Amino acid sequence: QVQLVESGGGLVQPGGSLRLSCAASGSIFSINAMGWYRQIPGKQRELVAAITSNYNTNYADSVKGRFTISRDNAKNTVTLQMNSLKPEDTAVYYCNVDVFYSAQGVYTRSAFWGQGTQVTVSS
Q: Is the dihedral of CA 66, 72, 75, 78 positive or negative?
């Protein structure tokens, strides 16, 4: 199986910065796309940013120019650098990883979610 561990959430003032990290571990052969999503109570989870295995990136319009996604394939990590944070960025942020891994000796592909980390932007 595959485990994802997120870190880096917290409380920050408007205009501030936070850096989220997500590390994948387990019987991993390779990782395809990696991404960050966010969700506020009562609303659907939405894509914030994604990065493919060849480093192509995609961002939600609301975060373009403020957030940067990156990955380290050697460490199986994905990072979201968030700058110029706004109150409307407040949400629980989840990483998502599309991965080839070994499940009881069987070559398997699936997507996994992190446990979520709270980001609160408030003065």
A: positive
**Cβ(24)–Cβ(110) under 8 Å?**
no
State whether residue 13 is helix, strand or coil.
coil
Q: Is residue 107 a contact partner of residue 91, using CB atoms and an 8 Å limit?
A: no
- Specify the amino acid at residue 90: T
* Phi, psi of 66, deg, nearest 5: -115, -35
CA distance between the termini of the chain: 41
Q: 49: which DSSP letter?
A: E
Query: 59-92, pLDDT tens digit by residue?
Result: 999 999 999 999 999 999 999 999 999 999 999 9
Query: Other C-beta atoms within 10 Å of 30: how many?
Result: 12
Strand locations in the chain (E): 2-7, 10-12, 18-26, 28-39, 46-51, 57-59, 67-72, 77-82, 91-103, 106-113, 117-121
Nearest to 68 by CA among 53, 83, 90, 85: 83
d(Cα 89, Cα 14) in Å, to the nearest integer? Answer: 10
